[in-house]
Write a structure and sequence with these properties.
680 residues; six-stranded mixed β-sheet; globular
């Protein structure tokens, strides 16, 4: 649905850069012998030679069109070179073209805010760059103007057929031009320079449109191709839109555009000028009506989003004619291929850009034989995305089965590989969307309840947690000192520098040891270490090895560590004595609620209002798990309010009482509610 956005009062300069036959250019760079030859890139399949996705200008002169199939293109142009798109997992692999597009984006983004609209097109907001140029080196002060800029097409200029380059030069250096046109002139020079730079560094040509908003810039870039640029001054907007077909406008190429043409009896955008804003709002609603009124006047407030990375990732395949999928087994096979491809792409995005996708969506096209409503739209289905190819595959199949039940109007869908009852799938696509950057210093709430390595906030740890499908990533506000470090047997008795009391725990500030139980545990362990021959206890396997290789240096190191342990014991005992002699005035720390532990618990137990958090809740190693027991009525809600919002939601979900079955009272019936009230 179009969104009406008010246009900024300040002049903006927006450029739309569109690569010329981009897929063909990428293949020609790989095979220079194809340059100047009629060439087309084809997504090959056995049906009529595959679909053309790009056609060179040489092939277009021979009559080849993108709507043709490969076999038809060869009939029209026998000398055409058909280059097949690389195939991976039975479908087209466009990674080579995506990478080439990224090369172009890296060059264009140096001059302004850049929005990558697709593999081969980019929007640029050059407002800051042109303002700076106009202030420091205005066009009229330039000694020479690049030839590429002089080849620009300025709409409304040179109607009399005079020398084009001379007219463009005069337009660029006018001293009496208004401020908006001077900004456009600067934008023209900057875009010409960028296009030359793209050609030098990548070997690709591109076309561009320069205007005051995104809508006009996109229209301009398509007006003169290839390797040219077009400028639309404000004075020429009315002339342009007056003859522009309705369906040439973005978002008016489908049903809405057809509805406008039939309902209002208009053919061009300029025809909409005869309708008031109120009339259009009455017909199409407030938002769409205002948007149409603005479009008719060349007004668009849509901003360049400043996005270099895609908003979503997708993988799909079409099954035409006899290739249509007619069994659950065949659908599952192709879903597995598509999901593997999608998994590779989102994992690459996670590694390279530190972004995670949150939603998995399945799109299907299908038909039912012998049904008047056979082209009823197959419903799209979505669910939270879980990382890992097998998990995505499982979820995608479940989404397909749910959509198929809705599509057929039946809840009895055969999930085996046998023949179905009249349905066929003509296309499948899976996509990952709602992609967000991983906040710096992210970690799970499980950190508050388990021994954690300080590196848990690293990108590598976050990646591993996501890939394992563990607890969701949450921003951890505050310092590492909020975690309770409880040494377990696996941490006691490590060789050499890791002693029976984990040294990272000993080196923590005293204020980090929040509970008496933690201090008692550490003090007792320290005494045990000092009592057993002043040497740390070691596992049986490592003890004999250490004894055989023990040296005087290790003994000296051991004595140093003993001194550290002794100092810590003294500090802990003094702090514990202070706590025991002082009154318990309460605490605002969340750790207070988890003092009670039940190490034998491996399941979530509930007795009235008492709950034990299962150690498996976080998926950590069993040697590092601790169960936490608490009563709901012991927890002060004000303490939970001090936590980060994401953690508040998770804890409140734990504390939320389970629904109890509604059991009617013995002997109650509907008559009970209508019985006469007794007089008291």
């Amino acid at each position: 649905m179009p969104v009406a956005r008010p246009e900024s009062s300040d002049a903006r300069i927006i450029a739309h850069v569109d690569m010329d036959c981009f897929y063909v250019q990428v293949e020609q760079r790989k095979q220079p012998s194809l340059r100047g030859q009629p060439t087309a890139v084809v997504q090959y399949n056995s049906w009529k030679g595959g679909a053309l996705i790009a056609v060179s200008y040489e092939a277009r002169k021979c009559g080849v069109k993108r709507s043709m199939r490969g076999d038809e293109a060869k009939k029209v142009c026998p000398q055409i070179h058909l280059v097949q798109v690389p195939v991976t997992r039975g479908k087209a692999d466009l990674n080579i073209y995506r990478s080439a597009g990224s090369e172009v984006v890296s060059i264009l983004s140096k001059k302004g805010r850049c929005e990558r609209a697709s593999i081969d097109e980019v929007y640029l907001d050059l407002t800051d760059a042109v303002e700076n140029m106009l202030c420091n080196t205005p066009p009229e002060s330039l000694e020479s103007i690049d030839e590429e800029a002089l080849k620009s097409h300025v709409l409304g200029l040179n109607k009399d057929g005079s020398d084009i380059e001379s007219g463009v030069r005069q337009w660029l250096i006018r001293r009496d031009a208004d401020h908006r046109d001077k900004l456009l002139a600067c934008g023209t020079l900057i875009v010409a320079e960028l296009r030359i730079q793209v050609l030098k560094e990548t070997g690709f040509t591109c076309s561009a449109g320069i205007a005051h908003n995104k809508m006009l810039a996109k229209l301009a870039s398509a007006m003169n191709k290839p390797a040219q640029q077009t400028v639309i001054p404000l004075s020429s907007v009315k002339e342009l839109l007056g003859s522009l077909p309705i369906k040439k406008i973005k978002q008016l190429g489908g049903k809405l555009g057809s509805s406008i043409e039939s309902d209002l009896g208009v053919n061009t955008v300029g025809d909409l000028l005869q309708f008031s804003e109120d009339k259009l709002q009455e017909r199409y609603g407030g938002n769409t009506g205002t948007w149409l009124w603005n479009i008719a006047r060349g007004i668009s407030g849509e901003e360049v989003e400043g996005r270099l990375l895609p908003k979503s990732h997708g993988s799909g395949k079409t099954f035409r004619g006899p290739q249509a999928l007619k069994t659950i087994a065949s659908v599952e096979h192709w879903l597995n291929q598509l999901c593997e491809d999608l998994s590779d792409r989102i994992c690459s995005d996670l590694d390279q850009n530190k972004r995670i996708a949150q939603t998995l969506t399945l799109h299907v096209s299908a038909y039912k034989s012998g049904d008047l409503d056979s082209y009823k739209k197959f419903p799209s289905k979505s669910c939270p995305l879980r990382y890992g190819a097998s998990k995505i595959q499982d979820d995608a199949l479940i989404l397909f089965q749910a959509g198929l039940r809705e599509y057929l109007g039946s809840f009895r869908v055969n999930t085996e590989g046998s023949q179905n009852k009249g349905w066929a799938v003509t296309s499948l696509a899976v996509s990952a969307s709602k992609i967000v950057a991983i906040p710096s210093g992210t970690c799970s709430i499980a950190k508050f309840f388990h021994t954690q390595d300080p590196s848990c906030s690293s990108a590598k740890q976050s990646h591993e947690q996501i890939m394992q499908g563990s607890v969701p990533l949450l921003p951890l506000t505050g310092s590492e000192s909020h975690s309770v470090v409880v040494p377990t047997e696996s941490q006691i008795g490590l060789p050499e520098t890791e002693y029976s009391i984990t040294m990272s725990s000993l080196n923590q500030p005293e204020e980090n040891l929040k509970t008496w139980e933690d201090q008692d545990s550490l003090i007792q362990e320290a005494h045990n270490v000092l009592a057993e021959n002043k040497s740390p206890s070691l596992p049986s396997g490592s003890r004999s090895c250490l004894e055989l290789n023990q040296t005087e240096l290790k003994m000296e190191h051991s004595r140093t560590e003993e001194a550290k342990i002794g100092n810590l014991v003294s500090n802990l005992e003094r702090q514990q004595q202070k706590r025991k002699t002082s009154k318990d005035m309460g605490t605002s720390s969340i750790l207070r609620f988890f003092k009670g532990r039940n190490n034998s618990s491996s399941q979530t137990l509930e007795h009235g209002d008492t709950r034990i958090l299962p150690s498996s809740a976080t998926g950590q190693d069993s040697q590092r798990r601790e169960a936490w027991k608490y009563r709901n009525d012991e927890i002060d809600p004000s303490v939970i309010d001090e936590l980060p919002p994401e953690i508040q939601e998770e804890i409140r979900a734990w504390l939320r009482p389970l629904k109890r079955p509604s059991v009617p009272k013995h002997g109650s019936s509907i008559d009970h509610y209508f019985s006469p009230t007794k007089n008291t």
